[in-house]
Amino acid sequence: MTILCVRFQLPPMYEAALPQLLGLLEEFTPVVEALPPDGALADLRGAERYFGRDAVELASVIRVRALALYGVDCVIGAGPGPMPARMALRDARPGLTRAVPEGGVREFLAGKPVAALPGVGTATARTLCEYGLDTLGRVAAAPLSTLQRLLGAKTGRELHEKANGIDRGRVVPNGVSRSLAADRPFDRDELDPDRHRRALLSAAEELGVRLRAVDKVCRTLTLTVRYADRSATTRSRTLKEPTAHSAALTRAAYGMYEALGLQRARVRSVVLRAEGLAPAEQASHQLTFDPVDEKVRRIEEVADRARAKFGPRAVMPGSLAVA
Predict the structure, then answer these.
(1) Backbone phi and psi for residue 104, each to the nearest 5 degrees, phi listed first
(2) Greatest distance between any 2 Cα atoms in the chain
(3) Is-cis flag, bond preceding 279, omega within 30?
């Protein structure tokens, strides 16, 4: 077991702490891949030899240091590759690392539903289940030619390999937080468009606050609407200019929502994701003579300082909205 998949138990509004936590992992290995908003992959092959401890023992040290230095607990999955480590994370809990041994990946996967495999979407899972291939064990036992006829040559081969425990993925060191997401689930399947819009407003404001906290702007905004039947619709929009301005994010989110033309749709949750992040200092801003826009931007700066001093609830959600 040489790969750790770590998920830090960070409150949504405190993603700015993620770079420090990734720095903690980098004390053990330089091969760390950020998994925004709160996780990372770490390749410990060199660390196991250097420290004379296996990945599970090193995971315990990482957890203790995260708690001692930052007051943040974490859940950790370990495996011989990124894919089994990610799946082991789903079975992990605080205080106990879930480890998949080198020769036990196929057995670990066998009883899991096919939809649990990373990269298998709703449509692919539905197709496989229609032919009785509802678990990864059955997919592993199916002839490769059958999977390729159902899914195509490349997809069928990749799925067959993964179901048999063959993971060709690797940990790719990257920058922190290439995207940020804000999820707004409803207590019950929601029909009211006004509640949908209020959820979008709250999500857009959260993204704006988090982007400004890490001095980033986003180029693209993606909206995902999940429905009661577990289907989903996703739309993306490239912004006129990179921004962390909550009002601009809200307008883009409203525009994508209205374009869907939902009529009495039973919505289970809405998710906004800011993508194409870049340093705010490198972004250009179109000057405007609109006094309302400039006033809102100044209010945002004051609100951000209030949140930094008094906590995330210092400013009520929606109080800075521009319809």
Answers:
(1) -115, 20
(2) 66
(3) no
How far apart are the C-alpha atoms of 260 and 262, rounded to whole Å? 6
Bridge partners, 125 (sequence order): none
* C-alpha torsion angle, residues 241, 243, 247, 250 (rounded to 10): 80
Read out DSSP for 169-216?
-------S-SEEEEEEEEEEEE--HHHHHHHHHHHHHHHHHHHHHTTE
Residues in CB range of 282: below 8 A, 6 or more apart: none
- What is the mean predicted confidence (pLDDT) over 170-176? 75
Type of residue at 277: L
Rg (CA), the chain: 22
The structure tokens 């301005």 sit at 245
| Residue whose token pair is 């009883």 | 111
Of the candidates 223, 209, 218, the residue with the CA atom closest to the CA atom of residue 243? 218
Residue 227 parent element (H or E): strand 216-227
3-state helix, strand, coil in the chain (%, to 5): 45, 25, 30
CA 152, 118, 137, 85 dihedral sign is positive
286 φ, ψ to 5°? -70, 120
Regarding predicted confidence, which is higher, 112 or 210? 112
For 273, the token pair is: 């994701």
Q: Are strands 32-35 and 278-279 parallel, antiparallel or unpaired?
A: unpaired
Model confidence pLDDT, tens digit, residues 196-250? 999 999 999 889 888 887 788 999 999 999 999 878 898 999 998 899 898 899 9
Strands of 228-279 (E only): list them. Answer: 232-243, 267-275, 278-279
Q: Which single residue is written with the structure tokens 């009661």?
A: 228
Residue 211's Cα: distance from chain center in Å? 15
**Which residue, among 254, 246, 251, has the nearest Cα to 205 in the 3D structure?**
246
